[in-house]
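Notebook entry, structure prediction.
Reason for the run: the old model in the group folder had no record of what sequence produced it. Starting over properly, with the input documented here first.
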Amino acid sequence: MLVFHEITLDDKQAVDGYFRRYGENSCQHSFVSLYCMQRKYGDRICQQDGCLYILRSGRGSARERVYLFPMGERAKLAQAVDRLRRDAHAHGASLRFETLTRAAAELLEELYPGEFEIEPCRDYAEYLYTHEKLAELPGAEMASKRHDVSTFFRDYGSRTRIEPIRPEHIEPIHAFQKCWLESRNHGQEDVQLECENDAIQRGLDHFGALGLSGIVVFIDGAMAGYAYGAPLSDDCYDVLIEKGDRRYPDIYRVLNRDLVRLCCGDYAWINREEDVGAPGLRTAKLSYKPDRLLEKFIAREVVVR
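New structure, fully documented this time:
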């Protein structure tokens, strides 16, 4: 029987071990995301017999129980999937996996041919870029990005200060985030923004313990933006949050570039996560010419044993 529990900071070391070994540099395989996004996804975990199981309690229904694909040695994964099927069936539901990588989707089909309906999910494909591309914006295809950054520093350079996030920055970032959220909500609650804001608060409150790093941008001594992320592996860094004051044109171009420059020097790859099907976000991510799209799939059980 699998017993799932709420994720705490005490789980970080063990969960990171699974993700760094089996996570394929996916932003879904991040302890920071699991811990901070619990309000949105309701993630719960269970470790048993050398495998990690993740239940997305906030994504299921009476008919389907939702999980991420289990993690562990390949020889143990058939048994791990069987355990999740039994767990789902014990709750009167069928099994659904979300955001599988191609490798996981192919393994699932190999282990259970014809027993799962597997389909690609473009909205959850993740955008990966080389460190050089985002830090240097090289070549003709990045010329407009370099121009935008140059324009920002031409207009604000002497008035701008960019620093790595330190403990004394946390409370000012909280205040900046509160103002940023109020400017977007316009007096009405936006569930998605509120869930993101909750994740940001959890991240800021445990910034050091979660292994986060980031930058703050000041213009004329006032905070104009911040960005932060965390490693996914020894060669990939996940950009989690970027928030800027749009009264300063191209602030997001600067946050994008300088977070990579100041915090990602040891990482060959930068994961800028998915676009969740938002047209503007997709256009923005594609405009940086991703070097790789990490494909994602959804799998639904169609044969119940």
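Summary: The CA atoms of residues 110 and 195 lie 36 Å apart.
The old model has been moved to the deprecated folder.
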